[in-house]
Amino acid sequence: MLYTVGRSPYQCDFNVIFNLLASGDDILFIQDGVLAGIDGSCYLPALMNHGVTLYVLKEDIEARGLVGQISDKVQVIDYTDFVNLTVKHHQQFAW
């Protein structure tokens, strides 16, 4: 499943997200959700323990002045890659 997280991790309940995740799922941080991908974020270790792949949208990083602050555990992608993720996953959940 593809999860798109568009809200700041400080404005949503990540514990609920943790309960939904399964190994092989992908999470794409967009809009204010990109804050969860900042290096040193307390959410990254817990997400990585679930066996999911983490992505962050490049344009949203740039718009928020966060270039160079994203963890190397998170893959930076563009809109074309975003489309490819939506094609890959038949089920999607927007958070």
From TrEMBL:
Q: Which keywords are on file for this protein?
A: Cytoplasm, Transferase, tRNA processing
Q: Does the keyword Transferase apply?
A: yes
Q: Which GO terms describe its molecular function?
A: transferase activity
Q: Per the UniProt record, which residue ranges are transmembrane?
A: none
Q: Which Gene3D superfamilies does the record cross-reference, listed alphabetically?
A: DsrEFH-like
Q: Which family does it belong to?
A: Belongs to the DsrH/TusB family.
Q: What does this protein do?
A: Part of a sulfur-relay system required for 2-thiolation of 5-methylaminomethyl-2-thiouridine (mnm(5)s(2)U) at tRNA wobble positions.
- What interactions and quaternary structure are annotated? Heterohexamer, formed by a dimer of trimers. The hexameric TusBCD complex contains 2 copies each of TusB, TusC and TusD. The TusBCD complex interacts with TusE.
Xref: PANTHER family: PROTEIN TUSB
What's the name of the protein? Protein TusB
Q: What species is this protein from?
A: Photorhabdus khanii
